[in-house]
Amino acid sequence: MDGVNLSLIMAAGLLACLSPGPATLTIAGTAMQRGRKAGLIVAAGVSTGSLIWSVAAAFGLGAIMLANAWMFEVVRYFGAAYLMYLAVRSARSALTPGAPKLHSSAAKSLKSIYAKGLALHLTNPKAVLFFGSIYAIAIPPGTEPAVLLTVITVIAVQSTLVFHGYALLFSSAAAVRVYQRLRRTFETLFAAAFATASWQILTARLG
């Protein structure tokens, strides 16, 4: 693949997935609260959002959004609002005394869990910046469609493995036991982290 450093792209993608952020918090929280199945489903939602942004950036949408500030601003405000919504939910849970409630795994509930992960990543302006930068800088103009498809596939597989790995890790029996003992502490930390991320996105500027 002339002109395309796939190893560098994979390294950048891996760092983006592994770095702590709203997606990691959401997957971890869902896996500990609702179990492995729910954790894997919310991870699938996050992975789908990642794939959508990757495909969009490959076809030039990321560069268009970065060149048109108002489009990026729309995503930014929606992302900040959604993270603040998650912060409020976690805060309400932290203020609720008693043992953690067992959540149903009904189909409707699982669909909403998937939608939660999808919405989280689709409203993440950092995803726009990441994929927009990757395809604008690391992929030369005129790159063949087959090469673009390879890059999209590699990033998608890598992010899916990382996000689902988080779901498996945090749905382990040990992680669930720790969460059950310290539920209100965890929810307080989640609320603070989501609120902080919301504020950082809201006050961020392109430069």
Automatic annotation (TrEMBL):
The keyword Kinase does not apply. The keyword Cell membrane applies. It is found in: Cell membrane. The chain crosses the membrane at residues 6-28, 40-64, 70-88, 118-140, 146-176. It is a multi-pass membrane protein. Keywords: Cell membrane, Membrane, Transmembrane, Transmembrane helix. Its main location: membrane. It comes from the Bacteria. This is Amino acid transporter. It comes from Parasedimentitalea denitrificans.
